[in-house]
Amino acid sequence: MEDLAFQDSIFRNFTKPDGRLKSMPSQKKKKLVVLEYLIQKLDPAKAYNEKDVNEFIKQFHEDFCTIRREFVINGFVTRENSVYTVNEKEKWNKWQDL
Predict the structure, then answer these.
(1) How far apart are CA 2 and CA 78, in angstroms?
(2) Alpha-carbon span 37 to 7, nearest angstrom
(3) What is d(CA 52, CA 31) in angstroms, rounded to the nearest whole number?
(4) Quick check: 72 and 80 in contact, CB under 8 A?
(5) What are the φ/ψ torsions at residue 80 (nearest 5 degrees)?
(6) CA torsion angle 81 83 79 23 (round to 10)
(7) Per-residue pLDDT of the chain in tens (98 residues, 90 and over written 9)
(8) Quick check: pTM over 0.90?
(9) Which residues contact 39 (CB under 8 A, 6 or more apart)?
(10) Could you tell me the domains of the chain?
């Protein structure tokens, strides 16, 4: 229950009513909550080209380059030959571990 309360507070502080991000959190734990929220909206069975990933991220925030890079750095996606695939959850950096 504590985890849900933490996630809810992050969403209230960093998202607008329409679901777009006001800003990207600078604290790693909070950033991972937001990244996990976003990545769960992608289909894990699908491969995405870079343009598709950029368009997806732009729905939530204009800085798609930084968010795309954070997806890769934190193990949410794998990039190979400019094709992105969502990793299984075991590979994700977990905010709960911080």
Answers:
(1) 30
(2) 9
(3) 22
(4) no
(5) -140, 120
(6) 130
(7) 689 999 999 999 999 999 999 999 999 999 999 999 999 999 999 999 999 999 999 999 999 999 999 999 999 999 999 999 999 999 999 999 99
(8) yes
(9) 71, 76, 77, 86, 92
(10) 2-88 (1.10.10)
